[in-house]
Design goal:
Blueprint (H helix, E strand, L loop, with lengths): L9 H4 L7 H25 L9 H13 L4 H8 L3 H13 L3 E5 L7 E5 L1 H25 L2 H20 L1
Antiparallel strand pairs: 1-2
Helix pairs in contact: 3-5, 4-5
């Protein structure tokens, strides 16, 4: 039977699968986690420090930070966007001093991009702003016991993420 808001039960929202016993309970837990984590991530995405990066700029910086120096064409391919769109994104990052360009030592026609110190700082500030928002919410709205429970759940959530 559907709930009053029409969303249905957690098992219904998980895809309509229902099983007796432990399997049904596991599916319900999965559905509730999916909904809760989705809401949390949506709320965290709303946190925007001053001078916030766009989604595309953030993605490009993170790719360069994690993957190391790359060409604009390689970045565009990784993000499945046009080279022109990536070029516009990279131009904005370069104008703000967040990335650096240097000639490719193997092919002088190509340019290699890397994250500048200011780009690393911008990513750090973005991450810190989100952590600070979470910390405020935890301090203001949760008891010591609830915070301890969430602390204990954090490694389990990480393990769950790695097992998917």
């Amino acid at each position: 039977m559907a709930e009053a808001d029409g969303a249905g039960s957690p098992a219904d929202r998980a895809g309509g699968l229902s099983a007796p016993g432990d399997a049904g309970e596991t599916l319900e837990i999965a559905a509730e986690l999916r909904l809760s984590l989705s809401l949390l991530l949506r709320k965290l995405r709303l946190v925007q420090p001053a001078g916030e990066l766009t989604v595309g700029e953030t993605a490009a910086l993170i790719r360069l930070e994690r993957g190391g120096p790359a060409t604009a064409a390689a970045l565009a391919k990784q993000d499945a966007i046009s080279p022109q769109s990536m070029g516009a994104t990279l131009s904005g990052l370069e104008e703000r001093g967040l990335i650096e360009r240097r000639p490719d030592p193997d092919d002088g026609r190509r340019v290699i991009l890397s994250v500048a110190a200011a780009g690393r700082e911008a990513l750090r500030e973005r991450r810190n702003a989100r952590s600070e928002q979470l910390a405020r919410a935890l301090a203001e709205s949760f008891s010591d016991a609830e915070r301890a429970c969430l602390k204990a759940a954090a490694p389990l959530l990480e393990r769950l993420a790695h097992s998917i």
